[in-house]
Amino acid sequence: MEQEINTSLLSWDEKWILLRLNTAIAEVSTALEEYRFSDATQALYRFFWTEYCDWYVEASKAVLQGTDAARKGNTLAVIDFVLGHTLRLFHPFMPFITEELWHGMGFNADLPENQGGKSIMFAPWPKPLSADELAHFGILPEDEQAANDKYKTVELGRGLKSTFNINKKVRFVLKPASELPAHEIEVLRILLNAEPLDVDAAFTPKKGTPASITPLGELFLPLDGIIDVDAERTRVTKEIAKVESELTKVRAKLADENFTGKVPQKVLDEHKQREADWSAQFEKLKGMLDALAG
Predict the structure, then answer these.
(1) Using an 8 Å Cβ cutoff, are 231 and 239 in contact?
(2) Euclidean distance between the first and final Cα of the chain, in Å?
(3) CA 104 to CA 21: how far, in whole Å?
(4) Residues 6 or more apart from 273 whose CB is under 8 A from it?
(5) Residue 220: beta bridge partners?
(6) What is the pLDDT of residues 210-245, one digit of tens each?
(7) Is the Cα torsion angle 20, 146, 166, 171 positive or negative in sign?
């Protein structure tokens, strides 16, 4: 049974997932009405797997692992609300599984038989939130943007770790562009897998510290004690030499009129793409070497 949501306790993430659910309902409904079943399943997959599981469930750990009972109960109410609607969206494609989950998770409890109490088949099809409902939840366009900014910051931070092949918890430092609520900092820490995440407006990084300009401010990844800098510098230098060799080869071919004037356009395009890819790899490696030089 879906619980009542306390709108005053909704976080950016919870408002964001309600808006993403709204979009999914509209997209799936329209696709089904127009017999575009593939589009409907793609919209469902994007919403449930990427937006709900990858982002919202992970962000919710900041509350669910905390000690605030009121916020924890409210987050569970949001999860209930989203799952209740999502099961109904999935039902045309997965009738037996959704029927089992509908009863097993208690969504049928206290509902009249003709509205889902007996079967999910009779549950009302989800509708997008009206303007009045959005106002009731206190959802504003800037709430969605605030969550998107946070997720973009996380993607950039994960990119920094990936660049240096780091797959463990590490220290990040955020030099914020503006003040952030403590709850949002904790969500950032969890999504970044940071230990710790320091928020310091006066932070002065060591020369060459890897960093990204994010919507929330400058995000730094201090490398001290994380990697063997000398060994990594040697490895990156070798990688640069290999990439330079490949660039030299492909550029020589593209500069050879005997080659460019005879090969099919498809082959020429492939070589141009190869040059672009090697150039991008070269710039990435140079950036890594610059960071390691600090």
Answers:
(1) no
(2) 57
(3) 22
(4) none
(5) 173, 211
(6) 889 999 999 999 887 777 777 778 888 888 999 889
(7) negative
